Structure formats: C-alpha cells, structure tokens
Amino acid sequence: MAVGDVPPGSGMHRLSVDESVGELVSQLTSDLGQLTRQELALAKAELQVEAKKAGKGAGMLGGAAFAGWMTALFVSLTAMWALDKAMDLIWAALIVAVVWAVVAVVLAAKGRKELQEVNPKPDQTVESLKEDAKWLKTRKS
User: Which residues contact 112 (CB under 8 A, 6 or more apart)?
Assistant: First the structure.
C-alpha cells in the first residue's frame, strides 16, 4: 500500500483538493460557531457571578446608610432629651444610638469589602479567547 492510500473497508475515501478545502471551510465555520456560543455562555456565567457580588455589596451599603440615618436620629433624640431632665431615658437613647452606630460601621465595612472584590472583567472568557486566537493561528498555518 502506498503512502496516502486509504485502507479498503475503512469507510474513508481519499479527498480531492476541492473536497478537502470545502470540508475544511465547513468544519472551520462549524467550529467557530460552536466556539462563539461557548464563549458567550462563559461570559454570561462570569458576569452573573459578578453581578450577584455587586448586588450583595450594594445591599450592605444600603443597610449601612439606613443604620447611619438611625444613628443620627437617636443621637439627635439623645441630645434633645439630655437637655431635658430624664436621666434614665438619656441612657436608653444613648445605648440604642451606640448600637446603631456599631451596626452602621459593620455593614459599611462588609459592603465595601464586597464591592472591592467585584471584578467586572470576565477573566476566564478573556483567557479563553486568547487561547482560541492561538488555536486559530496554528490552524491557519
């Protein structure tokens, strides 16, 4: 059997130059379509994860804003009642104000940390696209 001959009964036939180019173009088109769909799915998945992180951080900052508003409210009430004469009421209002201040600080710190961890760039997709470009270059040569 000569080099390049196809063994009988293998189900394969030797392609002409025109057939092989056509099949290569068809295969390449099919591969690129599939690759594009996979890259879009990967990008979508990565962006959904980052959007959830951003939402969580924004929610915590919203909670911190509310806690800060409550702090201002109770500090104001404490100052108002301090000018009055009810000693027990002053301590109660001050304790509540301090609790709200602690809540505000904790939520703000956690929310800020969450937002700092958000990465809007889909790193896996970018890396995969670089690999795809290398693959296409080797396929062309």
Answer: 57, 61
Mutual angle of helices 123-140 and 17-82, in 10-degree steps: 170
State yes or no: pLDDT of 67 exceeds 60: yes
Residue 8 lies in a domain: no
* HSE-CB for 53 with a 13 A CA cutoff: 15
Examine the fold and report which residue of 53, 71, 86 is the final residue of a domain before the chain moves on. 86
Token representation of residue 117: 């961890």
Task: Provide the residue range defining the domain that includes 75.
Answer: 17-86
Q: Report the alpha-carbon distance of residue 57 to residue 65 in Å, rounded.
A: 12
- Please state the pTM of the whole predicted model: 0.39
Contact predicate 42/35, CB 8 Å? no
